[in-house]
């Protein structure tokens, strides 16, 4: 293993700027680039089928722009280009993150019948006010046409999470400019706004969230990804979600290693669940935190009927609702019990709270075998910053590890750092050196735990002052209250120690494999041979190749 540096990377920020990079609320908004000018774009939908029309909504300080579209797979394939198109500056409502930008349609084109399913990156270029070029990026998905797809994998992009973290316009499900003091996160977010900077494309040296630092004793945590974002003008959340940081690495790996792979958004899962029927294997990757009830119904029914679901992802946390034909995502989160109308009438099982809230009664483990509140943070901040970087393996004889040469007690993917930054787990016990889910864990029947690492839901250190903590015990208190009714110290103690697992279980006529870590894709990005082999073992078995 290569030696890790024992200092944080530095991007030239002052201590005050470093603090602002982590604590501050900064975001993209129309007018942000002032004197140099701007061009922004969003689409009417996240995804289209071949033959359908893409409508782009564009606002630009320049009267002319050009557009360039590539399919982003094993190779970049140019599919469309046009110059000399006209645009104008369009007014944007203050609460555009919530309501949508409401810009007039600017440009339309038809998806060619020969455009294969995948992610398509749109680059818009124009001349800035100072004569320098200006650019922005957009991304849309071409989803597959219905029908039987033998031998093909369907990847479902974590678009609910992209939407939740999108900083464009000032509000997302984390921070925001809503409420009387313009300081609250948004409980509703619109698809009708551009993606924030770094969700579509990123330079190769953009830091990931987990630390690549051998942290010296008593070190105040630093957050290289947020410092880099602040220093380079990228979104504060570029490393938390998006095609560029997560989903793209799985898709490119699959094509690079010879798999036939299609891509859909979670909107297909919600509105057109029959899309799964054509496939023997469906995969979910990266940071995959926000799902609707209907999306889970789609996966549960698919597996029950004999489908195979492989999740290489972490943080199966929140129920959302989609409104306005999918243009608005609702998630009240921490404020759900106080504010979500689902608690006053309708149907409390659809409340936009943690899946593990007892009133919802549908823990994530019922679909994917693991729960978010039993997992959570590893490898950053004050949450196991010196913890395991790979999955500690307990059942090396399992078919998923065939051909890796891995042994009991080894770490899978430590070099490529696949374990973190949010993981999913289960309450478990060790008997005879092997992990088993406890009777009350919510594990489905027949679930086998293949690997388990530690994780933490709170930052706890006698050596680090509270004002230097970022993650604090807030999430832990919320989980304590959600699961046990009160955010007391005693309840916090029950939830603060988490874990991250790889599990496998049968369901109906089908099967589920779940490596519960956001960073699994880092192993594919960094071409870690063992991580690639495990991924292939899963895909090959589920495609009936082995
Ligand atoms: Fe998350």
TrEMBL record:
Residues 77-525 form the N,N-dimethylformamidase beta subunit-like C-terminal domain. Gene3D superfamilies: 3.40.50.880. It comes from the Bacteria. It holds the Pfam family DMFA2_C. InterPro entries: Class_I_gatase-like, DMFA2_C. This is N,N-dimethylformamidase beta subunit-like C-terminal domain-containing protein.
């Amino acid at each position: 293993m290569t030696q890790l540096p024992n200092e944080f990377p530095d991007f030239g920020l002052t201590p005050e700027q470093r603090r602002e990079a982590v604590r501050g609320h900064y975001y993209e908004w129309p007018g942000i680039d002032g004197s140099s000018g701007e061009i922004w774009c969003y689409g009417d939908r996240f995804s289209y089928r071949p033959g359908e029309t893409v409508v782009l909504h564009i606002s630009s300080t320049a009267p002319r722009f050009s557009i360039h579209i590539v399919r982003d797979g094993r190779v970049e394939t140019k599919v469309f280009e046009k110059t000399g198109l006209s645009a104008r500056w369009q007014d944007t409502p203050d609460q555009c993150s919530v309501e949508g930008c409401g810009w007039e349609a600017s440009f339309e084109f038809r998806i060619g019948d020969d455009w294969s399913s995948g992610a398509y990156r749109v680059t818009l270029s124009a001349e800035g006010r100072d004569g320098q070029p200006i650019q922005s990026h957009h991304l849309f998905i071409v989803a597959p046409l219905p029908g039987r797809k033998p031998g093909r994998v369907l990847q479902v992009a974590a678009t609910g999470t992209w939407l939740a973290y999108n900083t464009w316009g000032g509000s997302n499900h984390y921070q925001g400019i809503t409420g009387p003091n313009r300081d609250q996160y948004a409980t509703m977010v619109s698809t009708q706004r551009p993606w924030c900077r770094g969700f579509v494309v990123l330079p190769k040296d953009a830091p990931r969230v987990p630390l690549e630092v051998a942290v010296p004793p008593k070190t105040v945590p630093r957050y290289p990804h947020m410092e880099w974002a602040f220093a380079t003008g990228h979104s504060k959340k570029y490393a938390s979600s998006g095609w560029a940081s997560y989903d793209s690495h799985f898709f490119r790996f699959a094509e690079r290693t010879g798999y036939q792979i299609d891509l859909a958004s979670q909107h297909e899962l919600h509105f057109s669940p029959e899309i799964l029927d054509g496939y023997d294997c469906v995969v979910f990757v990266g940071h995959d935190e926000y799902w609707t009830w209907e999306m889970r119904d789609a996966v549960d029914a698919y597996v029950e009927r004999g489908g195979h679901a492989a999740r290489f992802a972490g943080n199966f946390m929140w129920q959302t609702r989609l409104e306005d034909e999918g243009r608005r995502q609702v998630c009240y989160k921490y404020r759900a019990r106080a504010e979500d109308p689902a608690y006053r009438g309708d149907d409390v099982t659809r409340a936009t709270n943690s899946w593990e809230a007892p009133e919802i009664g549908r823990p994530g483990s019922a679909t994917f075998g693991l729960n978010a509140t039993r997992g959570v943070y590893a490898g950053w901040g004050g949450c196991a910053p010196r913890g395991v970087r790979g999955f500690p393996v307990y059942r090396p004889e399992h078919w998923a590890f065939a051909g890796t040469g891995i042994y009991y007690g080894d770490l899978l993917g430590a070099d490529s750092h696949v374990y973190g930054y949010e993981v999913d787990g289960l309450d478990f016990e060790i008997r005879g050196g092997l992990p088993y889910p406890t009777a009350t864990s919510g594990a489905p029947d027949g679930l086998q735990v293949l690997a388990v690492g530690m994780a933490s839901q709170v930052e706890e250190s006698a050596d680090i002052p509270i004002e230097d903590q970022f993650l604090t015990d807030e999430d832990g208190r919320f989980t304590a209250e959600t699961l046990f009714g009160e955010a007391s110290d005693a309840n916090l103690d029950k939830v603060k120690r988490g874990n991250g697992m790889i599990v496998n279980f049968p369901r109906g006529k089908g099967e589920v494999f779940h490596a519960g870590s956001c960073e699994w894709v880092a192993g594919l990005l960094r071409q870690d041979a063992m991580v690639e082999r495990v991924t292939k073992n899963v895909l090959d078995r589920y495609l009936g190749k082995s």
